[in-house]
Amino acid sequence: LVFTEEDKYGLYSNLLFKYFLAEGVVCGHDLFVASAKEHPDNILKELPAPLLDETCGKELGDEAAAAKSEEFQDSMKIAWRYQNLPKVETSPTTFTKFGHYYDVSKKMSPELLQSIKWHSFYPHEELSSQPEMKACNMNGVYARLLQSLQRIISQGGFDGSDPQKKPKNVLRIGVQSLGSLVWGDDVCCTDTPEDIHSLTKFLYVLRGLLRKSLSACIITVPAHLIQNKAIMERVTNLSDVVVGLESFIGSERETNPLYKDYHGLVHVHQIPRLNSLMCDVSDTKDLAFRLKRKLFTIERLHLPPDLSDTVSRASKQDLAGSAKLLSSGCGAMAMGKKHLDF
Amino acid sequence: QGKFTLLRDTRTDGSFLVHHFLSFYLRAGCKVCFVALLQSFSHYNIVAQKLGVNLTAAKERGQLVFLEGLKSCLDLLFGEEEEEQPGQPSPLQFLSGSTSDLRALFEFVRVSLTPSDSDSWKGPVLLVDDLSVLLSLGATPVAVLDFIHYCRVSVCCQLEGNVVVLVHSSEASEDEENELVVNSLCHHSDLILWAEGLATGFCKDVHGQMKIIKRVSLQQVGEQDLVQVYQYKIQDRNVTFFARGLSAAVL
C-alpha cells in the first residue's frame, strides 16, 4: 500500500499517480482507477507515453554521470513494487532493464490502453443505493469504493478464489485525493471531523483486500490539508510505503540557490518491511525531483558547490540552515557542505 | 509466569520483537494465541521460518491459534450470511458498530487459551501485534484498556500465562488516545522493551536503541526500576545487540 502525501497544488503527485498507472498499462496489468475530482476516463487519457528503448537509452545515458539517475530507478521501485525490494543497483548500464520510462510531453496512445482491462470508480456516477457491505459506520462513499473493489477482485480472480480463472494477473489500484472533501470526508477541513475513523478504517479494509489478492495500490492524499495529526500517524502505521512530495512552488525555497535545479523534495517516511526482519534501506534519504520537458526524475539531492567568495554572510547562514534541515528529517547524512564557522 | 510484557517502539519499527517472542514461545512449547492485526499470516510464517519455527505446523498441531485481523475484518464485512455461525460472533465484532467494546475479541482469546483435556502445552501466551491499530479502527481507549485488563486477569492470573503486547508511541505524538493507552500500559507492565530510533537520525550500522525496563518497583515497595540500554542492528536472521557506541562498525 503506497501512501503518497500530495504536494500543495497536486501537480507532481498527479504525475506520479499517472506514472503508476502507465506502468500498469505497459506491463499488461489490469487497472482500477478511483477518483472523485477528475473523471477516471480523463485521467486514463492523459497517461504519459512510454519511451521506446532506443531513445531512452541515449537520452538518459547523457545524464547518467552527472545526475546519478540510478537513484531514479531506486525511487520508482519504492513507489510501486509490492514485494521485497531487490538491492539498489549502482551501475548505470543496468537501469534500463527494470521498469519503463515515460515521456511526459506525449500522451499514451488509445490502442495501448485498450489492450488492458480497466475499471473505474467515480463517486458521482455511482448509484446512490445502500452498500451491500455490512454496516460498519464508515463513510458511504468509501464503503461503496471498497465494495466495488472487492467485487472486481473476486470476479477477476485476483484473489485466487476461483482456480479456473485465467492466468494470474496483477491489479493496479490507484485512488486519487483520498480524504478530500470531494469524497465526502471532512477530515481535511476540520480538526475534529465527524467520523474520525472513516479514513483509517477504509485503509485497514483496503490493506486486507490487498494482502489477500495480487494487487498493488497507490493512494494520494492532500496531507497538507489534514489538520488532525493523529490521523496522519495512524495512517502511516497502516501503510506499507509512505512518500511525501514537497514542491517548491510558492514557498521560500523556490528562490533558494540550494534548490535551483530542482522542483521539489521527496520525503520517504516509511518503506515496507514485508516478509523479513529487516527492510532494504537505501544509502541516502535526501531525494529531490525535477520535471523537465520530457522527463520526471527523482535524484539524490546535491548541494551546489559554494564557489563564490563574495557570498554574503546572510546567505551563507541560510545555506547552512537549509543543509541542516535536509539532514534532520530522518537522515544524518553529511552531504554537501559543512560550514565550520569559527 | 504470569508476566505482562509491553513492547514499545518509537520512531522505528519494533515488529522484530514480535517475531522473536513468537518463535521463542513456540520453541518453548507454550500454547500461543497470536492476535495479528496488521500483517498477513504468510508474512509471519516466512520470517518465522528464518528463525527456525514453522507456523503452519504449529497451527495444525494446535499449539498456535492465529487470528489474522485483516482476513477476519474482510470476512465480517464481505462475508455471506450463511457463513456466520450462530453463537460465535466474529472476534472483530466491534467494527460493525453493534457493540463498542472488545468483548468478542476477549472471548476469542479466552476460549483459545483455556486448556482442554487433551492439551499438554506449557503455559498459555497471548501475543498482540499491534494494539494501536484497534484505536484506528474505532475502539475507544477505554475499551482497549478494558480488553487488556480482562486478558491480564484471565491469562496472567487465572491461567498463569504471559501476555506480550506491541504498541507504537512517540514523544511528539499528537495522537492523545494512543498516548493514553501506552502510558497506562506502561504503569501496569512487568517488563518494558522499548525500541527507539536513534536520536541522531538514520544510521546503517545501528538500527536503533533498546531500553529494557524491569519493573521491580511493582513487586517491592521502594525499589527502583532496573533500566538497561543497548543498541541493536537487525540482520536477516537475527538481531545483534551491543553496548552503546560499540557497534561493529566502530570497533
UniProtKB/TrEMBL annotation, chain A:
GO BP annotations listed: tRNA wobble uridine modification
Keywords, comma-separated and alphabetical: Cytoplasm, Nucleus, tRNA processing
Entry annotated with the keyword Hydrolase: no
InterPro entries: Elongator_complex_protein_4, P-loop_NTPase
Domain of life: Eukaryota
Cited CDD domains: Elp4
The keyword Nucleus is annotated on this UniProt entry: yes
Pfam families membership: PAXNEB
One term under GO cellular component: cytoplasm
Pathway of action: tRNA modification; 5-methoxycarbonylmethyl-2-thiouridine-tRNA biosynthesis
Compartments in which it is found: Cytoplasm; Nucleus
Family membership noted in the UniProt record: Belongs to the ELP4 family.
Function according to Swiss-Prot or TrEMBL: Component of the elongator complex which is required for multiple tRNA modifications, including mcm5U (5-methoxycarbonylmethyl uridine), mcm5s2U (5-methoxycarbonylmethyl-2-thiouridine), and ncm5U (5-carbamoylmethyl uridine). The elongator complex catalyzes the formation of carboxymethyluridine in the wobble base at position 34 in tRNAs.
Annotated protein name in UniProt: Elongator complex protein 4
UniProtKB/TrEMBL annotation, chain B:
Native source organism of the sequence: Sakesphorus luctuosus
GO CC annotation: cytoplasm; elongator holoenzyme complex; nucleus
InterPro entries assigned: ELP6 (IPR018627), P-loop_NTPase (IPR027417)
Family affiliation: Belongs to the ELP6 family.
Protein name as it appears in the record: Elongator complex protein 6
Subcellular location per the Swiss-Prot or TrEMBL entry: Cytoplasm; Nucleus
GO aspect biological process, one term: tRNA wobble uridine modification
Coiled coil: none
Organismal lineage: Eukaryota, Metazoa, Chordata, Craniata, Vertebrata
Involved pathway(s): tRNA modification; 5-methoxycarbonylmethyl-2-thiouridine-tRNA biosynthesis
Pfam family, one: ELP6
Domain of life of the source: Eukaryota
